[in-house]
User: Which sequence fits this backbone?
């Protein structure tokens, strides 16, 4: 899935949200590397693109769960709701054709957090 160019991500403040009929992905640039994560929080399905990003940790703006954008690992459970309901954030490898950046997404997405 096309994310855009590194310049577009930089101009957008180091993060860009890309959506299609099957995917909602947040791409972030940190220390010269671009990471792609599922934009919907694995805990409550809240959009993460307005969440706080500090170092490699993305914080959900709703219940403040925290995830590592490099591997999706849970760094902090949500402050409200069922902590058993949180799982790692889905991440996607990022590739480049020289100019454009792409998130490698599986064909025929077989999962959705919410319809």
Assistant:
């Amino acid at each position: 899935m096309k994310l855009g160019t590194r310049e577009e991500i930089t101009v957008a403040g180091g993060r860009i949200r890309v959506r299609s009929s099957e995917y909602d992905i947040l791409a972030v640039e940190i220390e010269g590397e671009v990471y792609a994560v599922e934009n919907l929080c694995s805990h409550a399905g809240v959009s993460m693109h307005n969440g706080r990003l500090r170092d490699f940790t993305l914080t959900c703006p709703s219940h403040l769960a925290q995830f590592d954008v490099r591997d999706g690992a849970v760094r902090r459970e949500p402050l409200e709701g069922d902590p058993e309901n949180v799982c790692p954030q889905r991440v996607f490898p990022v590739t480049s054709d020289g100019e454009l950046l792409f998130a490698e997404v599986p064909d025929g997405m077989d999962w959705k957090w919410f319809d």
